[in-house]
Design a protein that fits this description.
Blueprint (H helix, E strand, L loop, with lengths): L2 H14 L1 H26 L1 H6 L1 H42 L4 H43 L12 H28 L2 H5 L1 H4 L6 H22 L5 H35 L2 H4 L2 H43 L1 H8 L4 E6 L6 H17 L6 E13 L5 E4 L15 E10 H7 L9 E6 L9 E4 L2 E7 L13 E6 L2 H12 L10 E7 L10 H10 L4 E2 H54 L4 H37 L8 H38 L1
Parallel strand pairs: 3-6, 4-8, 5-7
Antiparallel strand pairs: 1-9, 1-10, 2-3, 2-4, 2-9, 5-8, 6-7
Length: 668
């Protein structure tokens, strides 16, 4: 066959199938544009110098995004290829050889590769510049020149290589399908995919699905520390992921069959066509709808975490870092003369060389313990205490850090707190302690008095408990008890902290601060330093969360769009059948619209249910990145559900319009 004829057929195919091919090219281009953005940020010299954490998060985001990208592109290619099968089968019946079809596919893939290359690289650089400016604004609070984000040739070549590998993989998959199938198989392929499970199998799948989803929900609702919640999340995702597919395959069919057994309901005209049509659609689309439900869940959770983190940035910094400057000296200045002398000299220099307010000086001790949450009260155990089956559940032991301060030091700078002999003040963001009124320390139960705010710098680590004890005697007993059996017994667990404010100084670049550091061999940390580190870490998470959310949006749109196209092609016959029964066009359109509304609203409803059950474990995981404010958390997720719902509805309406248009074209 002449090449000119093959080229003409390829061009005709691009024109006639543009409603299938164009979304594939655009979505693939956006995905690889994001790939370029992440790669360019990873190798950008400005990012490496000023935002090292962002580069690391970009690598992590690249891994997640690449996995999602490959899945979505293979899915889209599978649908595109499915639309070509009847055309190819007709060509084969008319005498075209398979080698000619292979050449056609090769030309099509080369054209797609070239188009995606141009759009992804140009778009990636332009949108990468916007993302670069945005992320600098979030992490530093000021704009940066675009000269710091030059066009990255290395990132371009890596992106093109990855695109080439993906397109080569798609080409091989398509060639494999053509090689194995004959023309009649291609024409009748749809018939081979019609499956009907026996009713007993549906009930088994339903039972297994309920058990899997229920177990996932159970894990998500458990009380855990943030780190434990992070690892538990993956287990919960596995159970919910598997169970959701089984429930869509089985439950949807069983409930529709149940409705069909209610004659008074089923045989009403407005219900008959709706339910019978839904049964057919659910059988053929169960897997796709489950995928939409899960993608919507991931999207809501990812965006919700991103928005919550962003909205809590400033509040977290201001709550944790109350004073502008902080330094520490090893030892307890109350009892160690050498420490007391050094602290006095540092304070004198601060008063003489700066316009600082009265420095806040206090002693605190930091050590590691296990929190046993399986007993009647929360118990703090030594790291050396081996969990045993009689009184400790190993799965309930939480590795936490304890910071201890005496009451006199605390009351000097904070709201007055009164403690009895059997009481201890507790300041923590660990949700696992929210319902506890007692805590067992060195074998002795203490009543908990909640401390919600302090006027000293308090790094609320994800696994940190700040204790305030009545006096130095109790403090020393606690430190000695938990430190005695550890391998770190000769380390300085107790130190004296000095905090002060002088807003006339220029952060950590002040010569006066450097002079005090050199003279006394200490490190003085500043509010600006902490803020930069905090914004870098959380800014990186926000950046990655935003890009992953964008990829999830693309995946949801692709599945909805291709499902609508597929439904349109199948609905032509249903449309004609109802016309032959004498139903007017307006009524037919209403019936089909109702079926599609139900079909695409179910996944979003399921996504909301999944999100509600995941809200507790997500709340705990966010504790890894600072204190989570319940008001910000709830309003963020409600807003995201509403926004995603609106966008989901817009996606549905757009694709529904194309669905109606395509049905009319196919009827003609």
């Amino acid at each position: 066959m002449p090449f000119s004829m093959i080229w003409t057929m390829v061009k005709r195919h691009f024109v006639t199938q543009r409603h299938i091919i164009l979304p594939f090219i655009l979505s693939s281009s956006i995905i690889f544009a994001i790939e370029y953005i992440l790669l360019s940020i990873t190798t950008n010299s400005y990012i490496q110098q000023h935002h090292q954490m962002l580069g690391m998060f970009a690598i992590i985001g690249n891994v997640f995004m690449s996995l999602l990208a490959v899945i979505f592109i293979i899915y889209a290619n599978q649908f595109v290829m499915k639309q070509q099968q009847k055309t190819f089968s007709l060509y084969l019946i008319l005498g075209m050889e398979k080698k000619h079809i292979r050449v056609m596919l090769l030309i099509e893939h080369i054209i797609k590769y070239c188009l995606i290359t141009i759009i992804s690289i140009v778009g990636g650089y332009l949108f990468g510049s916007l993302f670069f400016m945005l992320i600098n604004k979030i992490t530093t609070g000021h704009q940066t020149s675009l000269r710091a984000y030059p066009f990255d040739v290395k990132a371009m070549w890596i992106t093109l290589l990855l695109l080439f590998i993906v397109m080569l993989l798609l080409f091989m998959i398509n060639q494999f399908k053509i090689t194995l199938q004959n023309p009649m198989q291609l024409i009748n392929k749809k018939a081979h995919h019609k499956r009907r499970f026996k009713k007993v199998i549906n009930y088994i799948l339903l039972l297994v699905g309920i058990i899997l989803v229920g177990n996932g929900y159970r894990i998500a609702l458990q009380d855990n520390t943030p780190v434990e919640s992070f690892f538990a999340l993956f287990i919960a995702i596995f159970f919910v992921f598997s169970g959701t597919y089984l429930l869509f395959v089985s439950f949807s069919v069983l409930i529709i069959e149940r409705l069909q057994k209610l004659p008074k309901y089923y045989y009403q005209p407005k219900h008959f066509f709706l339910i019978s049509g839904l049964r057919t659609r659910m059988k053929s689309n169960a897997i796709g709808l489950a995928s939409i439900a899960l993608l919507c869940t991931f999207l809501i959770v990812t965006l919700g975490m991103t928005v919550t983190t962003y909205r809590g940035l400033d509040k977290n910094v201001n709550e944790m870092w109350k004073n502008q400057y902080v330094t520490s000296v090893d030892g307890d200045f109350h009892h160690n003369q050498q420490t007391a002398k050094k602290v006095k000299k540092v304070i004198n220099d601060i008063k003489q060389k700066t316009n600082a307010d009265t420095p806040k000086v206090y002693t605190q001790s930091l050590f590691n313990v296990y929190l046993d949450a399986n007993s009647e009260y929360q118990r703090l155990l030594k790291p050396s205490e081996t969990p045993n089956k009689f009184n400790i559940d190993p799965g309930k032991n939480k590795n936490v850090f304890i910071t201890v301060m005496n009451l006199n030091d605390y009351n000097q700078f904070n709201r007055h707190l009164h403690l009895k002999d059997n009481e201890v003040g507790v300041n923590t963001n660990m949700n696992i302690l929210d319902d506890s009124d007692k805590i067992v320390i060195q074998g002795k139960p203490y009543h908990i008095k909640r401390v919600h705010q302090t006027n000293v710098n308090s790094l609320r680590f994800s696994e940190n408990i700040n204790l305030i004890v009545k006096n130095d005697r109790e403090l020393n007993q606690i430190v000695n008890y938990y430190n005695k059996s550890t391998s770190q017994s000769n380390m300085h667990l107790t130190n004296t902290t000095i905090e002060f404010n002088d807003y006339e100084l220029k952060g950590n670049d002040s010569p006066i601060i450097h002079e005090i550091e050199r003279k006394h061999d200490i490190d003085i940390s500043t509010y600006e330093q902490f803020k930069n580190v905090w914004y870098n870490i959380n800014g990186g998470l926000i950046f990655v969360g935003s890009l992953v959310s964008l990829v999830l949006f693309i995946g949801i749109f692709l599945i909805i769009y291709y499902k609508q196209v597929s439904e349109a092609q199948e609905d032509v016959q249903n449309y004609l059948t109802m016309e032959h029964l004498g139903i007017d066009n307006q009524k037919i359109k209403h019936i089909l619209d109702q079926q599609l509304i139900w079909l695409f609203s179910i996944p979003f409803i399921v996504a909301i249910i999944h999100t509600l059950f995941a809200s507790k474990i997500i709340y705990e995981i966010l504790g890894l990145f600072g204190e989570v404010y319940i008001g910000i958390y709830i309003t963020s997720f409600i807003s995201i559900v509403l926004i995603v719902g609106i966008i989901y509805f817009i996606m549905y309406k757009m694709t529904s319009y194309l669905f109606t248009k395509l049905v009319k074209q196919l009827k003609k």
